[in-house]
Write a structure and sequence with these properties.
alpha+beta, 5-stranded antiparallel β-sheet, 2 helices, about 50% helix, about 25% strand
């Protein structure tokens, strides 16, 4: 009888160990899936932040170019034009286009700036005002 009881008690710990091992595998797998998901979310957020920052830089470059264009305007044409960008940005399919909404010959000029980079786009409208000391940006707002 003593031998029979030993056999039954040794079976219980083996079953417990197997169940505990399976439980640990489930816990570790769940933790790995959760960490992978968090890392993907963080990577997307970082990429999105980089694209947004570059688009803001392109919009700023467009505003500077619109200001230069108004200051040196020999005519009052309102034809859209593209801003010349450095080679590294051209290689990444970046673009900035400026379209003057109002006549460049007046004292208040409105321009729309459209920027594109990677899969992102951004646009803004700027209002330029002629002052005695030159042109200045009165307002810039995202569209």
């Amino acid at each position: 009888m003593n031998l029979a009881s030993r056999g039954s008690t040794s079976a219980r710990p083996r079953g417990f160990a197997s169940i505990f091992a399976l439980f640990l595998i489930v816990v570790v797998t769940t933790a790995m899936v959760t960490l992978t998901s968090l890392m993907q979310t963080d990577a997307r957020r970082t990429t999105s932040g980089a694209v947004d920052a570059q688009l803001r830089q392109l919009l700023h470059a467009g505003a500077v170019e619109a200001l230069r264009s108004v200051e040196s305007a020999a005519s009052s044409d309102v034809e859209p034009f593209a801003v010349s960008l450095p080679a590294p940005l051209k290689g990444q399919d970046a673009s900035v286009r400026i379209r003057f909404v109002t006549d460049r010959g007046s004292d208040v000029v409105q321009a729309r700036i459209d920027a594109a980079w990677m899969n992102g786009t951004a646009s803004q409208t700027i209002h330029l005002v002629r002052r005695p000391d030159g042109w200045t940006v009165r307002h810039a707002g995202a569209d």
